[in-house]
């Protein structure tokens, strides 16, 4: 099981959305990180086979994916970022419909749907119309349809947007389990969603792959650059101007505890903080600082 993205680029008129990306993807969870516009969706659409690269190629176990034809449908599962539903279908009817498209037998389909409804805690709403579901439930239906054919390669584009914290935890557990013997590629700009489950991460910026590695490896890149300190609240606006604050917490009326990124300590009582993947991300994407979700 190996997905090989070999020097792939995608050009849209004067925009190079994906720029010479090479990645060798093996079983496990792969987090594809990057700010909006980095090229994640374009890369995933090419891997999912719904858009052709301008140059380079993508192979699965040595075979170019555009030569896989019908096998392709069995190998890949894909959740697009903008997922179009059939609002008048019930959850169950919709999943039955997708099963038929994917060529599952009626028996396989019944078993698979019931398992997935259970795993994604959708059993209670299986007879509800999709139009009536909450955002998080719709996302889970989207994840279920991508998993229906038990794909060897699962591609999920921003799967966690709209999930509440409990749903996120269940989702992470489900994927960690699934990824033991499957390839799972997840794009997100919500770093904590992949931090603990990603076997490896790939970070994209302006269409290019700027770093890849395990969470531990990537976090080393900001070792010694993350600090925490206490400052008087009245000076906060001033510190916000001069420091790259990634987190802050009020400690009583006149003190605030801050976490910031810098090559060196910038206050007298700063102490080194244990770096997290999000710190690396914010180091690489300064404009995203303090504009986080979830
Ligand atoms: N079909 C398209 N035509 C023209 N430009 C596009 C198209 N799709 C994406 N882009 C541009 O390519 C860049 C990467 O977009 P995208 O892959 O959606 O990034 P991400 O998913 O990381 O937010 C953006 O600048 C976007 O505007
Ligand atoms: Mg996207």
TrEMBL record:
Per the database record, which ranges form the ABC transporter domain? 3-231
Protein's recorded name: ABC transporter ATP-binding protein
Under the heading InterPro entries, the entry gives: AAA+_ATPase, ABC_transporter-like_ATP-bd, ABC_transporter-like_CS
Q: Which family does it belong to?
A: Belongs to the ABC transporter superfamily.
Q: Which PROSITE patterns match?
A: ABC_TRANSPORTER_1 (PS00211), ABC_TRANSPORTER_2 (PS50893)
Alphabetized GO MF terms: ATP binding
Keyword terms of this UniProt record: ATP-binding, Nucleotide-binding, Transport
């Amino acid at each position: 099981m190996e997905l090989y993205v070999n020097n792939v680029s995608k050009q849209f008129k004067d925009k190079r959305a994906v720029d010479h990306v090479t990645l060798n993807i093996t079983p496990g969870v792969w987090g594809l990180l990057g700010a909006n516009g980095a090229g994640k969706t374009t890369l995933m659409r090419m891997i999912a086979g719904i858009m052709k690269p301008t140059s380079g190629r993508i192979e699965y176990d040595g075979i170019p994916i555009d030569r896989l034809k019908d096998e392709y449908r069995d190998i890949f599962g894909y959740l697009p970022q903008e997922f179009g539903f059939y609002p008048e279908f019930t959850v169950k009817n919709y999943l039955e419909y997708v099963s038929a498209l994917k060529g599952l037998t009626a028996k396989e389909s019944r078993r698979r749907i019931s398992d997935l409804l259970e795993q994604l805690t959708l059993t209670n709403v299986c007879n509800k119309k999709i139009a009536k579901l909450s955002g998080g439930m719709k996302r889970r239906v989207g994840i279920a349809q991508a998993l229906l054919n038990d794909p060897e390669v699962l591609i999920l584009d921003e799967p966690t947007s709209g999930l509440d914290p409990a749903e996120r935890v269940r989702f992470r557990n489900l994927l960690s389990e699934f990824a033991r013997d499957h390839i799972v590629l997840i794009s997100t700009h919500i770093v904590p969603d992949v931090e603990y489950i990603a076997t490896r991460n790939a970070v994209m910026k302006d269409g290019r792959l700027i770093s890849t590695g395990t969470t531990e490896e990537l976090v080393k890149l900001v070792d010694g650059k993350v600090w925490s300190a206490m400052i008087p609240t009245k000076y906060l606006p001033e510190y916000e101007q001069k420091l790259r604050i990634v987190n802050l917490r009020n400690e009583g009326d006149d003190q605030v505890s801050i976490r910031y990124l810098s090559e060196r300590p910038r206050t007298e009582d700063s102490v080194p903080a244990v770096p997290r993947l999000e710190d690396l991300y914010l180091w690489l994407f300064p404009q995203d600082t303090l504009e986080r979700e979830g």
